[in-house]
Amino acid sequence: MGGIDAVIGSFGYGAVVLVLCVVVFVHELGHYLVARWCGVRVETFSIGFGRELFGWTDGHGTRWKFSLLPLGGYVKMFGEHSLPNEGGEPAEMTPDQKAVSFSHKTLAQRSAVVAAGPMANFVFAIVVYAAMLATVGEPKQQDFLEAGIGGVVEGSAAAEAGFQAGDRFLKIDDAEIADFSDLRDAVTQSEGRELQVTVDRDGAVMQIPVTPREVVVDQPDGASASVYQLGVRGPGPVYEPVNAVEILWKAPAQTWQRTEEILVSLGELVIGNRGADELGGPILIAVMSNEFAQYGFVALVMFTAFISINLGLINLFPIPVLDGGHLLFYAIEAVRGKPLGERAQEYSLRIGLALLLSLMIFVTVNDLIRLTL
Fold this sequence. Notes:
CATH class of one domain: Mainly Beta
Mean pLDDT: 81
Low-confidence stretches: 2-12, 82-89
Strand order of the largest sheet: 6-5-7-8
CATH superfamily of one domain: PDZ domain
CATH topology of one domain: Pdz3 Domain
Strand content: 15-25%
Shape: elongated
Number of strands: 12
């Protein structure tokens, strides 16, 4: 898989476009497929917003297109919104139009179409995890991390000293290094003095002098601390094969575990155990996509599955404008026996849009501050 990893690693920040396009396509494809299954005419399937860059129209009259801003997407269905005439009243539809109109479908059908987008994101994550388990395997549980170099941080002390990925630590000064914890202890206790590091590089033993650098890192309690680092990453996990029966439950279990982690993090934000400055937006996704791309194909694919879970979960929140908000409207309609009034829906959508825009501005500012720091 080395050739694929090299190509993926060369994507740089283009990886974010790939990640976003994939998860958005999956989400909108869920809406599209269930809409077609329910007999709704789909007019537009767009990846991105704004001006169309290129596209085509299929035999069913659906315009498939890629638009300028790849920060989302949408499926436009016929009759999704009321068609006002000049007098302000809903326009009359012919029987043929009603047959393919979203607004004339049953409550169950409309709910299924709306829920299909987030559900597609979860199904996609399960499929990705299943594929990775079948082809790559499962990370093996290790009591310690072997003292090898999986990667060297650009511009770090290790990079300037000439360390390379694949080097294996043998000694630091006269102390033997058995695992990564030994390495970390030796570097931490160096207090910034030069170390004589003995490494094994493809069977050749060599000594490399290096001086750890003092860096400031964030602690779990939110405080900061100064530590000494070389700037090396440990080797990647060791994978072991998984049989087909295990995959059937491990792939959904991994998806649920990631979902649970996101929900727990959001809960901690709400009760104040986490700071709101930890929230990230498109810029953070771009940075992380680039970082995961550097680790290769498997890492980027797993990150894409994680973003897909995020997108599916967020869209289920009962906020007007999001899929969860529409499902909330349908739940109220089911209880009342009729839809909410147009004015109530309009005000709710405006409030939801304002909340969403405010959140986008907030997380973008957070991202910019994080990059500056």
